[in-house]
Write a sequence for this structure.
């Protein structure tokens, strides 16, 4: 056996072992737990936004505020460790899906679309996993402040400001995609929707309203990033919390914020349902 064929055989063995691990029921169940933790975070963010709309919350309406709520509850740190590890398993599953799905995709266009979609999900869940594990270890921080500090570091050059504007456009595009995904009900393609009328109806309602609400919130984040980059003002790029507080200052802002908060809670419920009905 030549060195080349030996290396190829070794790579195939590693690939097969990785596929066996990610297909194992125990690993799949752990990854499904990542959807549940993500759902909990969205429910808490939505609840904070609702309280903010009613003028009764000073917490950050973002993942740091949600995770701080979990950490302060009895047994919260244990839940954060479990949730963070579950989301880490979900990240690994998405990375494996990126690789194997790209191999099975027909055509360069489908392959590129699959890689962008699944790799993007891996990045999102990876960020949530890292944040949850940091809070579990007692090293949590204000994500909005971190975003402003990171943006401030980029504002010192024209290239950095352009990068901030581009980041804003990307987030804006993701928000628009979420709205489209909810309005078109295309999210149903990712699920094995059960035949039961009540469960199927719950998935449709929570998915449609949840995706639209989250999309509007992300569009607000993207617009603030663009505004920060164009105006060279990093204080405007404060992430989700800043976007929701800005919406609250608009005419009828409390109503808008309450609707988005309720929508984020529904998106969280959808994520929990997804943990049960998403094929893996």
């Amino acid at each position: 056996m030549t060195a080349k064929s030996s290396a190829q055989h070794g790579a195939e063995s590693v690939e097969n072992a990785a596929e066996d691990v990610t297909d194992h029921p125990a690993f799949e169940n752990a990854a499904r737990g990542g959807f549940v933790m993500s759902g909990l975070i969205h429910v808490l963010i939505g609840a904070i936004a609702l309280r903010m709309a009613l003028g009764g919350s000073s917490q950050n309406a973002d993942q740091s505020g949600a995770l701080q709520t979990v950490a302060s509850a009895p047994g919260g740190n244990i839940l954060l460790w479990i949730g963070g590890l579950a989301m880490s398993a979900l990240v690994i599953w998405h990375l494996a899906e990126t690789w194997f799905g790209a191999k099975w995709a027909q055509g360069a266009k489908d392959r590129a679309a699959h890689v962008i979609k699944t790799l993007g999900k891996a990045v999102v869940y990876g960020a949530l996993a890292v944040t949850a594990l940091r809070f579990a270890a007692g090293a949590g921080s204000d994500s909005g402040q971190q975003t402003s500090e990171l943006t401030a570091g980029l504002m010192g050059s024209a290239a950095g400001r352009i990068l901030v504007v581009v980041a804003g456009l990307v987030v804006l595009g993701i928000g628009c995609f979420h709205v489209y995904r909810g309005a078109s009900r295309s999210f149903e393609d990712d699920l094995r929707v059960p035949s039961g009328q009540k469960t199927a109806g719950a998935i449709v309602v929570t998915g449609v309203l949840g995706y639209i609400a989250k999309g509007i919130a992300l569009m607000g984040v993207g617009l603030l990033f663009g505004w920060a980059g164009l105006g060279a003002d990093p204080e405007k790029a404060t992430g989700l919390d800043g976007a929701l507080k800005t919406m609250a200052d608009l005419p009828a802002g409390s109503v808008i914020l309450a609707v988005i908060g309720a929508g984020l809670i529904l998106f969280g419920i959808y994520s929990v349902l997804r943990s049960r009905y998403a094929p893996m």
